Amino acid sequence: MAHYTAAMKKRTHALALTALFIAAAVHAELAPSETTKVVMLGSGTPNAEPDRSGPSVAIVVNDRSYIVDFGPGVVRQASAMSPTYGGDIEALEPARLTHAFLTHLHSDHTAGLPDLILTPWVLERDRPLELFGPEGTEKMAAHVLAAYDADIKYRLYGLEPANDQGWRVNVHTIEEGVVYEDEYVKVEAFPVRHGTWPNAFGFRFTTPDRVIVISGDAAPGASIEKYAEGADILIHEVYSVEGFRKREEYWQRYHSTNHTSTHELGELAGRVEPGLLVLYHVLFWGASEETVLEEVREKFAGEVRLAQDLDVY
Description:
34% helix, 7-stranded mixed beta sheet, alpha/beta, 6-stranded mixed beta sheet, 11 helices, single chain
């Protein structure tokens, strides 16, 4: 009997160690990739924080970039990572910004659209921008081009040797499912709950070596969990529970139906178990960065980072 008990204890100890090793593997820090990089071009919100540009994320696969959302300053943020200005990511040279994906039509996610259309063209992009977004994106792009009609005509028909392609935009209206695919990526869109917006989406990028999910602006929902299951990197918006408690009741009603709290996100991440959870579009409302991270970690034991502009994962 003593021999049996000792054997059982040994087996139980071995199983416990195995469980710890599995947990460690699940939550191990994500290894760098030479093939796929995630660049946080902008980590901010509608709040005009001087050290956080408007929300924008670049997925870079080999020599190609894919931009998700385009807050203010998007092209300069991309350019900061390019060889022209001391960086090492050639795919973020302005003339190479050719594919963009929009989660929804809120101004903080779209105020950089004129920049993304026109600046790369001025800097010699010679092909139209391929723009993927929800219903209303085509109308927005058309209005931008109409607003800058005089500028476009001057560059085309004045002394400046501008090409006649780089200012153009091919808009692709998206619905749930695969919205784009090439030899480097498969991009899937999925609907998210963002207040009363009828068409708000997140994106799942599958590259040769990573799966990256971006929430856009979103309250918790089943679709995010479905598409984020097992992702290598989950980039998710969030607001501080501590800061939320200080808000007026009407703002609490608004934010709780439009966005995701730190505790809600921690619980979600605990269910889908991403290799790395990246917080962006963070509403602090006076809470510190450390507090925001601690609030998420109360519910999620995995690897969490609070994004800063120009972070690379």
